[in-house]
Fold this protein.
Amino acid sequence: MKSNYAVMKAELCLERQGFFVGRKQLETVKKYTEKYMLEKTYNPTTFEHDLYYFWMKQGYFTPKAEIGKPYFSIVSPPPNITGQLHIGHGLDNAIMDTIVRFKRMQGFNTLWLPGTDHASIATEVKIVEQLKKEGIDKRDLGREKFLERAWQWKEQYGGRIVEQLKKLGSSCDWSRLSFTMDEKCSEAVRKQFVSMYKKGLIYRGNRIINWCPVCKTALSDAEVEYSEQDGYFWHYGYTTSDGKTTVTFATTRPETMLGDTAVAVNPNDPRYTHLVGKTVIVPFVNREIPVIADEYVDMEFGTGVVKITPAHDPNDFEVGVRHNLPVIRVMNDDGTMNENAGEFAGLDRYEARKRIVARLKEMGILQKVEPHKHNVGSCYRCHTTVEPIVSKQWFVKMQPLAEPAIKAVRDGEITFHPERFAKTYFNWMENIKDWCISRQLWWGHRIPVWYCEDCGAEICEETDPTVCPKCGSEHIHQDEDVLDTWFSSALWPFSTLGYYRGSDDFKAFFPTSVLSCGYDIIFFWVARMIFSSLYATGQVPFRHVLMHGIVRDEQGRKMSKSLGNGVDPVEFIDKYGTDTLRFALINGVANGSDIRFAPDKIDGTRNFMNKVWNASRFVLMNAEGKALVPLDECKLTLADKWILTKLNDAVQTVTELLEKYELGMASQTLYDFVWSEFCDWYIEFTKPVLYGTDEIARRDTLSVLCYVLDEILKLLHPFAPCITEEIYQSTPNHGESIMIARFPEYDQAHCFADDCNLVEELKELVTKIRNIRSEYGVAPSKRIRLYVAATDERIRQCDVYLTKLCNLEEVVFESAPAGDKTVKAVGTAATCEVPLGDLVDKDKEIERLTKELENVNGEITRAESKLSNPGFLAKAPAQLVENEKAKLTKYRDLKAQLESRLGELK
RNA sequence: GGAGGCAUAGCUCAGUUGGUUAGAGCGCUCGCUUCACAUGCGAGAGGUCGUAGGUUCGAGUCCUACUGUCUCUACCA
């Protein structure tokens, strides 16, 4: 059958050879498509790219917005435009594509919406670096020119990452590609901000925020990373104004003393009660400050005295508010000391620290220096130590937003996979502080607030004002700051679907079905999407959250640039293909756990793909040019019934697992089914028929082979899209594309439990006979005779299988002649005798059978003790008891056989 | 300080409402150019499921404590 894919492939092939494809080439194309067959070796690079082109061209990725139709939708976590594809994206996309392809094949109207993130601070840092190399300072360039550069950057790098994502084979709808700063998303940001502002959920205020002196911007709490560092405790004190005593404390940041406005003790601390209300003098700045009493001070810790710097410490700030203390900032935005620092003004914060310590020592004030490990916060972008600084910033009031967000998860409107991440979520949401959303940057959504220079009014509307609505003044200016990049990401599920424009996409695909991302961005992103969506749309943004872990290297280390242990997905795909990458990342991995991406695993996966390829070649080579019939017209063999039953089991298991988003187990099920059942056994079972002379039997077996292969390809397609499509296009009677084929469904007509059991018994016998051959060193090429005493008469149907799989010259269904020296294989369905003549070693045989008997005895003991337990009989499910009884019977039979054989030998 | 994860074969890890003789890959041993595949085939060795209790007819799985280990979170100056 000529397919669109084959035609396209032929066209591409001709084009590459420099041909123009027109009517004249039709004959050539025809010739090519008729002969189109699988290449001899699996070489993914020869077809993956073409396949993707084909899918795109066919428009399979682009659903129509059909309101009311059963849908399945995912919005991609938008990668930053700063970056390039890394293995984490590979994992993310592998997971999403697997789910999306599965749902699409199940018939859902499926949308996977991709996009990129402007990544305000991250991108700005990069551009500033780039400018620096050119000797340009951001300030000199000016805001407007800088933004031009930024948009250029976006075009260049945003485009690059999209191209790289396509290499993964992701079936996302590129026609709906979004960007956090495109018109649609910016509009959503504006409307959301204005709405929240008007409801009082966004406010401006003086608070302690985390300040990055290099990026020169405020950061949210989530953007600060803490790490333990070696520091010191400097012990010294301030003398009371009357000069009588000195109150001693310890500090890790002596430079902040210049901004001290009090010294605090615990009100219940008898050591200091007499000092409360007195004043002390801060050296260098000679400021007289009070000794105050506040519960915040821990009497047990240090000396029980704390110096209070409201402008540079969050706790001190709170204390300052309670006691109405002055707030004195001693640092500039770049981390140098300001004019309030007296003689230290102008020095870098660390230089000032050094000098202050030296001066304290000189003055004899410093009493003790102690090494001290403490946690220091640093900027998540540039890793500079952040400085807590009091500053006027914009905040989102979190309490009213957190409550419904907690409720939605508690009520099960959103489910986390695995569940434990809900706890992490609650933990954070329940202790959340207001979110600082203003950034002193240029690249991003500018805060839509204008200030009137004449009347001081604050103007926040959906459209830009030209005059002050209060006093009519034209002297208004917009806030200089931009929004935290996560503010726009938080709207992503509904901004991209056009919620604020009332678009059909939103009506057809919202709430989205699943969100898939790494657990490292629960706080940054997942939590914020939930409360933002509940606020804006009144609905949850997604029903399920599927969390995955971090991809690590062979030794379990995080992949990082500095370690140079990262795997470049693009290079990897060029070498192994995307199917191997994806499968290796998913197969056998439990949700939410980190993944070790080791060479072993890669080889194993590549080998599996190769296995699939070659098994398919086996089927297709044999089927080539042969007539096939539908299954219900076939006379099914025992092996056929067995594989169909096993396939049915696989279909059921895989579907159930995929529906629960257990991708790792689903793919493992397929891996085992394909390799250990289909390849290792079924293909071998078919060989006697395929190489036999019965034409009808051959036709029927081929029909089953092709059917099972087809089903396998479809089951495997979500996990390994390319190889499955490539093979599918070569199967007889295939459809247009496997992507749009129906996902296999459980089929009651293909359930043959009894035959299936018989084959399992056959397999058991085969293994035992092979074991004997191996143990006795019978050359694999040597054909031997086998005597079979059947305990299950049906085993007589299996002579061809036994002959083939054990390499026999003959199967005789009777006991071996009395004089023959044989070795016995005792199985459930039969006892087989392998005549080995002088090879038979009596002692070895006794040893072998005794060991087997011990095993069987162990089983009998176990089963008997279970069955003699009244509690088990009374409470265990009936089926389980029945199974146990059947087993006991079986093992008793085996025991009898083994004992009789041992008796003969002795 | 708070929360959570993990501990199963030599290594890396599966094991979802408790229920066959606890699995896989790699590694290891032995044997095979068997006409889809040596990126392969066949056979095999290897685990008292971290420790101690408890619940149960039944525990790798549930509960408690402990030990070791990792992560997140808080930020006691």
Q: What stands out?
A: The mean pLDDT of chain A is 93. Residues 579 and 721 of chain A are 7 Å apart (CA to CA).
